[in-house]
Amino acid sequence: MKRTEIKDALQSENFEQEMNVKGWVRTKRSSKNVAFVALNDGSTIHNLQLVIDLDKIPETDLALMHTGASVSANGFLVSSAGSGQRVELSVSSIQLLGEANPDEYPLQPKKHSLEFLREKAHLRFRTNTFGAITRIRHAMIFAIHKFFNDKGYYNIHTPIITSSDAEGAGEMFQVTTLDLEKLPMNEENKIDFKQDFFGKASNLTVSGQLEAELAALALSKVYTFGPTFRAENSNTSRHLAEFWMIEPEVAFFDINDDMDLAEEMLKYLIQYALENCSDDLTFLSKRLEEEEKNKKADEKSMELISKLNFVLENSFERISYTEAVDILKNSNHNKKGKFQYPIEKWGADLQSEHERYLVEKHFKKPVILTNYPKEIKAFYMKQNEDGTTVRAMDVLFPGIGEIIGGSQREENYSKLLNRMEEMHIPVESMWWYLETRKFGSVPHAGFGLGFERLMLFVTGMGNIRDVIPFPRTPLNCEF
Ligand code: ATP
Ligand code: MN
Predict the structure, then answer these.
(1) Under DSSP, is residue 306 helix (H, G, I), strand (E, B) or coil?
(2) What domains are defined for the chain?
(3) Is-above-0.85 flag for pTM?
(4) Which of 235, 370, 402, 458 should be mutated for ligand 1, with most atoms under 8 A from CB?
């Protein structure tokens, strides 16, 4: 018999034909003459209740069907008398596929902490929470490609191994095939990377932007969506060493077009989640409420689905870095010394606490900050007339801080070259990037959206390690 997925079975009106379902046991309970098994196959957050008549199927056949075991069951769909489900399966035969010894199987039908589940990342997919997150993650990946495809963007694969450092900020993982026990040295007694695989030092990419720019200056509208690696030793709930980034790059766009695209895209993705992931979002919303039960009223976050709708319904506040610093500097929060990093003067890099203050306390909605001091931003950002700021834009979200970082790019050859020299960017190895400013240069802009930061927002989860299946963070590369 062909397997029916539980998602379809739960919506089926077919009460006449026998059907087959397969999945993993979530719970089992027996009374004198019936047993109930809650079965889940990942197609939906909901379980199908199997009703097993112990007169027909002896308890001994069920004995090994503990939480975590896999089973195949045939039976007829019937209207459910119990509350909580429309239909259930009246089982005519059931077979154990793989057992899960309850003395060893780590997931029991009780609440496990997220920390505990991180150590069981090979099994945590089987919990309601991670099932929901995984399905939403898929929906968001699909929606991102759909958004760009519908607008006529081309997806391009930018390299994962690279010899350039897009941000000029270090923090890269080195890629090498050199024997670390016997490193070859050159005349200057430095490591001789000429003998390395690529004939020079290479790294894992920190951004696909520079290469995306090359494509945008021919195809006009492109985006990359790839893995990104940063060896930053920041053990926060918002940083991973390996994460995924969406980077559109668009010719003939200025900074305002860039902000419009960012806002439109975030709203599109949130709308998509609301329309396509409602069961999983409802579950995660209840989970969050449960989690926050013991928090004080003013520390509680907004209910998840209301929060998503709230972002859809409000336009993002767009202000300059300078205005933001004024707000922060004059805030009671700052005056009372409540920031870990007090804001004293213009030019300071904003920390997540400042970004969140602007979003959560001051404007109470997403904020886009523009025109940052050039000293705290990358070399490729377009320089403003004032000589001190660049046309950068960061999108700040509640609970997260920076979710998008982007800019209009400097398209003027000599201005770009000067800035690169000022910032000690190795100009010779970036010859190909500079050439695009020599041949048919045009204004263009783009941004990077951290996929897991988006996932944090959409799922309401608090730690970035819980929205990617296998998180890589300092000292953690298991699985
Ligand atoms: P932050 O200041 O939060 O560390 P950043 O300024 O270094 O971020 P960008 O270089 O602008 O980040 O990268 C673009 C986007 O990628 C960010 O807006 C963020 O959403 C995401 N991002 C950056 N670093 C990480 C990381 N280590 N883990 C997960 N996402 C990240
Ligand atoms: Mn940034």
Answers:
(1) helix
(2) 6-105 (2.40.50.140), 126-171+206-466 (3.30.930.10)
(3) yes
(4) 402
